[in-house]
Amino acid sequence: MRRRTRNRTGPVTPDLLERASTGSIPDIILLADSVQDGKCTVKALDVAFKFLHPDELVPDVERNRRNFRDPIDRAMNCMAILDSACQQSDSDPSLKTALIDHLIENVDGMCCWIRFLLLFPDVLPAWKHDVLGSHNRNAAVLCTILYMQDRVYDAYISSTECIDLALRLWFREDENQELLFDTKNRSLPLMMYALISREAGLHALVNRIVEKRLVGQLASSIIRRAQRVSEAPSLAVEPTPVLSYMRTLTSMISFLMDCDNEDIMKGFAKVHYLRELCTSLNTLSITIQKHHKQLLHMVYPPLHDLFTRTLKARTHVVDIWVDLVEGGVVPLFARLLPSVQRRADIPPPLPALSITTLAHGAMTHRRVIQRHLEMYPSGDVPGLKRCHSELTAHWKRCWEMATCFTRFPHSGEKIVMFCDNPACTAGEALPSDERSKKCDACCSVVYCSTVCQEEDWKNFHSRECRQARHNHADRRKLRTWYSHADRQFHMHWVAGMVTGLESQHGEGAFMIPDSDASPSDVMIEFDCSKGEATTPLYDLRLVSPEDLWVRREYTTFNSQEYLKPRWESMVQQYTEALARPERRLASLILRFGAHGVIEVVVKLVRVGDAYQPVSSIARHGYDSEIDSLPPVNPEDLPVAQHEDWL
């Protein structure tokens, strides 16, 4: 909204430059109009930056209401000259060099003037309807600056003025308290993407967000925009810009989660960002399927971005799996996978890996299973329609294997009824109305009675408690504690699997080829941490407790080394009683966050026709071999020119 005093433009003459450099507003306006269409020069740029320094800024609108118009008019027209220079700089090396030098020398001036210009719709009645346009234009300017050159980017992300300006643009709401939103002009999300797409900018923004306690506001702003994207009326008519907007939002989430900042992770998990974003993707995909089915494959990359975040999570590990299932990730995959089966930009292994991780990773945890069964009470999921036979078969096979967890009875599992004292004789005979009691100091072990607690304190726990307390506190803070209710569920699951294997295959289920080991000599391992489950067998006569502790080549359990004496005692007690055929030792290994695994070793005893768990030890491990799914085509992320990269 610049005041125009001339109806035609002319050449950029030395006389015009001289008059404009004196601050003549009509001549600055004429200069701004004249430098369009490839006519911008270095001298014109010098004039523009002369009036974009902080000392030209009117400090207080209220106190200078009468005489603040001239500096504003100069600045607005100088910004127009700057915009022309940015557009023409790629074809004029000398202009680009001068532009870069000016931008680096005048970081605070640029940020202060942009921030000041954003006030006009609030204080000038004639401009009150230009809030969205003003913020879009200035976000586009900042985005262009950040993409100009590495030195420019480094200078601006090092300035708190720039970071605060970006946050002001991003958090601005309209008169209805709705965040500014425009699917056709995506300057706001692209500006934020430009800022955080590099590590230095990401850390600068995250540090400022944490310092100003805006983590929750940032998370909710992304969620609110995603909801508006999914409900945008233009989605049915012109879907490509809307889909591109959603991909930009999910890419922002990816970068923010990759920064590995605990405040960011906890803040986003607190507002259930995965559940809300997955719900928005479901809504969006339904509209796309109805009106533009041929574009349905374009919804898969945002889903994949979110899905890979669950694998990299170091905090709220089970919580985010629950959120993903509550958000409808299963029907979303079922809807999208047929559309991506022959896409050259989506490698075939990615959908297959996603299915495997969902069915064999998430569906092994009790709370995730509970949410899943609320949607699919039988545990069965919808099949893939009109999909490639190999992917359809893989989907079916993965979910059939997942049913061994999803259909396993787990009612009442919140009532913990087992004892961690190895010498306990009560076993499963605890009264039905009594629950186990935790150690008050560390909460890491449970007992059926005070007698068992005192006995275990003497034998083991007095040497464990202090370290266990610190370990428990750290994991509680990050919500990565493996609960006793989950352990009880997995103990009974292991017992059920061993019972089922013996019922189906007899003692042959535990026979090692070319070995004379009896079933009671063998420890069976149910490894569900790396996709499809495997069941290696270990001859306990040949493997020492020490070797069992470190048997996984790529896994370490350093954070819980204090459990080693208890572990060795458990294995040793079992091997000393190998002559008792009614006993079994089994292990279950599950995926648990970024490179994380949970191992539960369970001692079983046969009661009637079924095995029952007697005791168990659970430990957290780090597996360097487990990695996350790769992103989809990172080179296709949004570019500075605001093109529809999709």
TrEMBL record:
MYND-type domain location:
416-465
- Reading the lineage from the top rank, the first entry is Eukaryota
Q: Which keywords belong to this entry? A: Metal-binding, Zinc, Zinc-finger
Is Transmembrane among the key words of this record?
no
Give any GO molecular function from the UniProt entry.
zinc ion binding
Q: Does the keyword Zinc-finger apply?
A: yes
What Pfam families does this protein map onto? Answer: zf-MYND
Annotated protein name in UniProt: MYND-type domain-containing protein
Organism this protein belongs to: Ephemerocybe angulata
